[in-house]
Amino acid sequence: MEEIKVYNTLTKEKEVFKPITPGEVKIYVCGVTPYNHPHIGNARPAVTWDIIRRYLEYIGYKVKFVQNFTDVDDKIINKANAEGTDWKTISDRYIDAYFKVMDALHVRRTDVYPRVSDHMDDIIHMVEELIKNGHAYVLGGDVYYDISTFKDYGKLSGRKVEDMLAGARIEVNDEKRNPGDFALWKAAKPGEPFWESPWGKGRPGWHIECSAMSTHYLGNTIDFHGGGSDLIFPHHENEIAQSEGCTGCHFVNYWLHNGFITINSEKMSKSLNNFFLVKDVLEKYSGDALRFFLLSTHYRSPLDFSDDRLEEAEKNMDKLKDVI
Ligand SMILES: [Zn+2]
To answer: Tens digits of per-residue pLDDT, 94-105?
Structure first.
């Protein structure tokens, strides 16, 4: 089989890809939280991994590809409360919306799209194992991961445990052993959806789902794990701590992260009002043109989105079609 090289965020080097099982590739990519229509930042990893997957298949690999939906999340619950409906109605609606625009971008479906709500048993089992292994502790109805117990914590992001402060996405609980300890399980607040667990009614923290679902479908060690570079810390760092702390096996051989999308050279953000939804872009440009544009820059580099560049992509796409 053709030799390929990939840049691995874990080693910070370009490495020759060696599959765990000859002829096969196991891929897990972090998916979206379905609380709104997908924005173009969601389209980039989808198109990038569609190409990587198609290429691996083209050179002869049998690919197993898993991408999750985070269908249990504060943003979904808030939206459901605002609309006076339940979380499932919201997540189902935006999962449909996700498939609709990804189909327009010719992104082939992955083999499985697991949802957090379908994997509570796997998640609870993994948290129980982490408590047994001494990596996690119970605090009231919550369970936290003690990052000081995992000697390799920080190996992906390059952060040092001693420098770690409570981040914005980490709930602050003064009784935690270390400020960087993160929630594996959270006690349910009134009015929230909940699941029964050995620690009472609650729901999982954000990071544990990917460790649990990756292990469920692909085994303890996988070939590729992907996602946006904004997920390196804390999400992927925490996935490593959870998975390796639970199974004792090396979790991921090659970590691949795609770059950010900027809008007219500015960071995309809701507050700057430059947050582009894929469905709105597709009203002006074809799916082929948007896909062509997303692939016009190396996946690790930042990609600048502007009408000029989209128009250019549309023209180039038309030229290609004429030639064909
Ligand atoms: Zn994830």
So the answer is: 999 999 999 999
What are the pLDDT digits (tens) for 31-56?
A: 999 999 999 999 999 999 999 999 99
Helix extents (H) in 142-255: 208-218, 237-247
What's the total number of domains in the chain?
A: 1
The answer to whether residue 318 sits within a structural domain is: no
6: phi then psi, degrees, rounded to nearest 5: -130, 150
Radius of gyration of the chain (CA): 20
Whole-number Å distance, alpha carbon 30 to ligand 1 midpoint, is 4
Q: Ligand 1 centre and the CA of 317: distance in Å?
A: 33
Q: Which CATH number goes with the domain that contains 236?
A: 3.40.50.620
Ligand 1 geometric centre to CA of 225 (Å): 9
Give distance in angstroms: CA of 319 to centre of ligand 1.
38
